[in-house]
């Protein structure tokens, strides 16, 4: 068996642990957008029904009830989103450690299979940088983030990613100084 198949079970589990709440949060945030739109639409319907001369009292009451139910659903989703965001924030260190483990396994694969980064094929490009370099330098950044100063190769890799992605950077760069 190869390195990838030998480690795939562990990596799959680590990825699931690291991303589960983020995926749930993204799904809930999408549900929240829909609930907000529905609540607004139903409130507008109630408002228009209430002002209309062509609706009966029972129609206005029904519109009101539907608007209030939608508002309640929206509030429940907002509460769940808030709780999940807090949970993700409270687990950031654990999630960071899981991601670090994934990067370590990938980096170890480069060393085990190819004998190091120099003998490893580049892999696909990630915003203009070979995948092997992103893996190698991301692992180095994650392992050495608390030391304060990164090697030039780590800085160069993330400077290139940041330049390529601009404000759309999907990750946080660790501060270059040691946290207090």
Q: Describe it for me?
A:
This protein folds into 2 domains: 3-90; 93-168, no CATH class. The protein starts with a helix and ends in a 15-residue tail after the last helix. Mean pLDDT is 88; it is low at 174-180. A hairpin with a 2-residue loop joins β1 and β2 (129-130). It has helices at 3-51, 57-90, 92-114, 131-144, 152-165; strands at 125-126, 129-130. With 180 residues, it is mostly helical. 74% of the residues lie in helices and 2% in strands. The longest helix is centred in the first third of the chain and has 49 residues, at 3-51. A two-stranded antiparallel ribbon has the order 1-2. The protein has 5 helices and 2 strands, in the order αααββαα.
Unreliable residue stretches? 174-180
Relative strand content: under 5%
Overall pLDDT:
88
| Number of E-state strands | 2
How many structural domains are formed by the residues? Answer: 2
What is the helix/strand order? HHHEEHH
Helices, by number, come to 5
């Amino acid at each position: 068996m190869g390195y990838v198949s030998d480690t795939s079970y562990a990596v799959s589990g680590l990825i699931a642990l690291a991303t589960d709440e983020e995926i749930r949060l993204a799904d809930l945030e999408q549900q929240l957008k829909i609930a907000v739109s529905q609540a607004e639409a139903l409130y507008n319907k109630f408002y228009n029904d209430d002002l209309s001369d062509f609706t009966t009292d029972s129609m206005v009451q029904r519109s009101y009830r539907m608007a209030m139910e939608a508002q309640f659903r929206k509030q429940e989703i907002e509460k769940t989103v808030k709780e999940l965001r807090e949970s993700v924030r409270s687990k950031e260190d654990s999630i960071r450690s899981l991601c670090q483990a994934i990067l370590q396994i990938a980096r170890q694969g480069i060393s085990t299979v190819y004998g190091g980064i120099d003998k490893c094929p580049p892999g696909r490009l990630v915003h203009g940088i070979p995948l092997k370099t992103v893996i190698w330098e991301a692992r180095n950044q994650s392992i050495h983030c608390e030391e304060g100063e990164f090697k030039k190769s780590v800085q160069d890799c993330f400077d290139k990613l940041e330049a390529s992605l601009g404000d759309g950077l999907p990750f946080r760069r660790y501060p270059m100084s040691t946290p207090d």
